Amino acid sequence: MVNSLAMRIDGDAHQRVTEKYLNKDEITNSKSEKDYLKIHEVLAEAYKSNKLNTPIYTYVKSVDKDYQLEFVATSSEEPYFRHGYSSFPDSGFKNLDSGGNLGLYKDEFGHWMTAFAPIKNSKGEIVGYVQADEKFDSFVLEIKKGILKKILFSAIGFMCTIFFLLPYLRQLLDKEEKQKNLIQKSLNETKQLSYELELKEIALKEYAAKLEESNRDLTDFAHIASHDLKAPVRNINSFSQLILRRNRDKFDEGTIENFNFIIKNATRAQQLIDGLLSYSTANKNLGEPVEFCIGDAAKVAQQNLATIIAERNVRVVIQDMPCIIANQTLISQVLQNLINNGIKYNQSEMPEIIIGAGESEEKGLYFFVQDNGIGIPKKFQADIFKMFTRLHGQQEYEGSGIGLAFCNRVVKTYEGEMWLESSEGKGARFYFTLPKAKVLDTVVTA
């Protein structure tokens, strides 16, 4: 109580009163001094609400005597300003600034229990102390009365209970014994289950650690292998083109066709390596998330595909979509892959790509890329997001079979999922969610 009270007292007002009135009984009416009245009202309210028997008061250290205190304010209506306070034990002075309890002590007025706390001004300086006393003799008397009442009521209650419940006591004891045995049996089973669960948890953590290490090794291997393979494949492609360019007039049609075959397959190998490298690092390159709008990411993807969009006369529609905090480059690559697939696997005279967002109770916020292409048969849709999955040969449609797997991996990194709605010959709509990406209130009109 005193700690709370010390914080409620205006330390600056207390300091002003102390500095203004330096002599005994200078304040004779608490209502004539506003600063004093402010402190008095706080003390009086605490005195009343806590139902104390003795007044609460504040005091300061005496300037004349080392181990002497002087009253400043009181909860009583009658002020006793600047009177010396000599009952405070000398041993309590060492804890005066930190506050605390004096324990039980005696003076000429009786035995007391006392609690005190420092008062601080707005600068954090200690400018006084607040103290509340409880007379131990009265406290003990009240406790004794309370104990006697409790003993009396308890005795009466106990006798009534015995009188009315004695016939059922043995039955209850038997039932309690059975319940005790049942509880003990349950505790033993629970301990056994807890032990088995702990063993399984340890085994699961070890397995998870090994799996994480294995995935890290595989990712590092794919990354290193991709880098190591790029240079020789690029050399094969470059030198094949150089030889063909320099000797086209000397080669017959069969030789030229063979060189074109080498160049075509070297180019495909480069695409596969680049795709594998992107896939292996998709969950590592989240980087520092930035605030951007999905519509802007879609426009970046559209610009990257500007050439093929112009060649195929593609109509791209970017609807209004919200802004998020994530890796803009990765999200742009996801959209670019989906847009590119919608153009590549499309036999329409005017391919159309629609990029937008929606919301459902089951999925929450989702994004989609819709095309009017050749569609995907139902039987192939379950495997479409797996690595190197291709539904058509290279002669029909070029590709590495990594694009959708890359998209799916990025989406899973953001704890999302990908799915599609499609039927053969009627286009496809690819959906994805990004729960881990923080969605902002901003919506930008495309």
Q: What is the CATH topology classification name of the domain at 284-444? A: Heat Shock Protein 90
Q: What's the mean pLDDT score?
A: 80
Shape: elongated
Q: Kindly report the name of the CATH homologous superfamily of the domain at 284-444.
A: Histidine kinase-like ATPase, C-terminal domain
CATH architecture label of the domain at 284-444: 2-Layer Sandwich
Question: In sequence order, what are the helices and strands, one letter per element?
Answer: HHHEEEEEEHHEHHEEHEEHEEE
Number of helices: 9
Assign a percent range to the helix content.
Answer: 40-55%
The spatial strand order of the largest sheet comes to 3-2-1-6-5-4
Low-confidence stretches: 390-397
**Gyration radius, rounded:** 43 Å
